[in-house]
Design goal:
This protein is an alpha+beta fold. The chain has helices at about 1-25, 30-45, 55-60, 75-80, 100-110, 130-140; strands spanning about 65-70, 90-95, 115-120, 125. The protein contains 6 helices and 4 strands; from the N terminus they run αααβαβαββα.
């Protein structure tokens, strides 16, 4: 659980430290701006931006495309932003929380835990083109 939040918490701690240093130096406006910036970064890198993660077993029971992801992955963030409004049509599996999901990704990606890995319509792709994912989500391809 903590592993999923590590990057977000690091951003927040760094932001507080930098803002404190700037505030003590008399730059209160800059300190507030830096704190807000790092709080936004902490949110972006947190698991909160993604739909609720399910286990790989739960994802297999659902009849939806499956997106394997992990917090802090810039490619996962890109996929999440480009599927805005459609992301709920997929089952999202956080491989840091689900060993079975991590094993599924390794099986697809020749032993690597490369994410995002998407399984839809009997086809699986590692770091797929977001257009391909959007097409599968729009059509409901399982």
């Amino acid at each position: 659980m903590l592993r999923s939040w590590r990057l977000a918490l690091s951003m927040l701690v760094l932001g507080v430290a930098l803002a404190s240093f700037l505030a003590l130096g008399g730059s209160r406006g800059t300190a507030v701006a830096e704190l807000v910036l790092f709080a936004v970064l902490a949110f972006i890198y947190s698991p909160l931006l993604f739909p609720r993660s399910v286990s790989a077993a739960e994802a297999a029971r659902r009849e939806k495309p499956v997106v394997y992801w992990r917090p802090g992955c810039p490619y996962c963030l890109r996929l999440r932003f480009t599927t805005f409004g459609l992301a709920g049509r997929a089952s999202w599996v956080n491989i840091w929380r689900d060993p079975e999901g991590a094993a599924a990704v390794r099986a697809i990606a020749q032993g690597n835990e490369t994410v995002p890995t998407v399984v839809a319509g009997g086809d699986s792709r590692v770091n797929p083109d977001p257009r391909w994912v959007r097409e599968r989500l729009r059509s409901g391809t399982v």
